[in-house]
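User: Round two. Same drill as before: sequence, then structure, for each protein.

Assistant: Same drill it is. First protein:
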Amino acid sequence: MFKASAELKIDAIEQIIRDFPGRRFLLVGDSTQKDPEVYGELLRRRESQIALALIRNVPGAEMSVQRLRSDFRDVPGDRWRVFDEAVDLLEACRPHVP
């Protein structure tokens, strides 16, 4: 009856991506909820439309290497980044944004 929050987020983002087929997207989230899992799944499903997924490493939130490997399995390492501070975003985005 009720979808899990990760499924709802995937459905909502996929609808936006479908609504703009000629666009590429940059996904920005954090480590406190299901953003790594959601963005990894979306990168696998919509790789041609997602330029990059960025995950902010929130202090105190679980962000193990094992979690990231699982969440972003089969996704090339240059398609996602973890960052600590907003100033890190410019460098992470540079190769993906014209």
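Second protein:
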Amino acid sequence: MNPSPELIDPHWVRVNELVARMAQNRAAMARLHAERAEMCAEALALVEDRVAQREAAGTGRGQPSGDRIPLREVIGEIGAALRVSDQTVQHWLGDGAALVSAYSATLDALREGRIDERHASAIIDGGAPIVDDDVRGDYETRILEVAEHETAPLVRRYAEVLAARLQPDVVDERHGSAHERRRSRFYDLEPGLSRMQFDLPSTLGHAVYDRITQMATALEGAGGSEATEDAGAEADGDAEGEARDSRTRDQRRVDIFCDLMLCGAPTAHGEGDALAAIRGTVQVTIPFLTLAGLGDEPALLAEHGPIDSVTARRIAADAPEWERVLVHPHTGEPIAVDRYRPSAQQRRLVNARDQHCRWPGCRRRAERCDADHTIAYADGGPTCAKNLALLCRRHHVLKHASPWRVLQLGAGSLEFTSPTGRVYRNDAPPVVQFVSFREPWLIPPDPSDPAPF
């Protein structure tokens, strides 16, 4: 439901009208894509008729792979008329045939503008391993419920997981086949630039990329330029005017990768730097008055006991962050912990719950996001899971610098309200999917449900 124009700030009326037109345009394009899918299915029916004609005439018989000339004839004609490649036409034909013959509900959703072409393609690709018609019907029903509310990349991820849950034997076989196809390739691009490409198991690929990304990020903290994904980004000199590392994070990834491959370690970046540093961590509890130099109650070193106040204050001065612990006035039992930055345990919890940036449509990984206070810390918002959500830096800044509003609904669900008054609900992705019960995103959250910590 679109908000009434008179209820919108005049500054946002034009944005509201533009968004409404774009939504109508998206629905119209989806209807056209549905029509194209039906025409592609019709084209394959013409191919079958042509094959039958050639067989009746005795043409094309005896070919090991069957008579493929009629298919090439149709693909060539369509590609020439629409000025697209044969590969593009083949993709259209395959998706069109799948939608008409196996995914009729998805085709209806596409025709009605409830999903777009990318959603439909994700559903088809995710269900490719499923061979049982009943299982495929169950899969389509479940994944459509997600597709109508989520982005296409997220639908593709859910589709792969759901297909694996519904028919694990086929998916295992498919993944095993993919493992056998691992390979490496090397070829030159332009003068002075070459490309080395590896096809490897997904778990190893993600692990390798994450490792070199962590190393590249560590170099930023050791004096390199700020993190950026934009090619050509530059860093300013440090406070003393000395030259700093001006490489982008992508360039650091490549350089570290070459070091690891040629030397077994990133030796070109020196020894004993942030890549190999291990810092000891201690937990010291300091009463506030002692910290301020106004009291003499002892500070406590965890697993040791009291330490002198001078040492405790020096540790506090060098600590990157503090926690405020509220204790019971009689028993001394900690009853609340308050801090601006979440603890490692809280961050792990929020990462596990959110998995990626929670802004509608954003898929930036949890490790590259900030833990944002939904109610700002400066406004009294606590540092707890019920008031934290992952936002990438781009959307974190947008939230605080614009009229966008975010509300925690409970159970990890967020409600985003745009400056035009539109409301977008974003549910935390389930870590484990149970296909025999209702999906978590369909269960209304209970606002009274306490946070899981």
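The radius of gyration is 29 Å.

User: Perfect.
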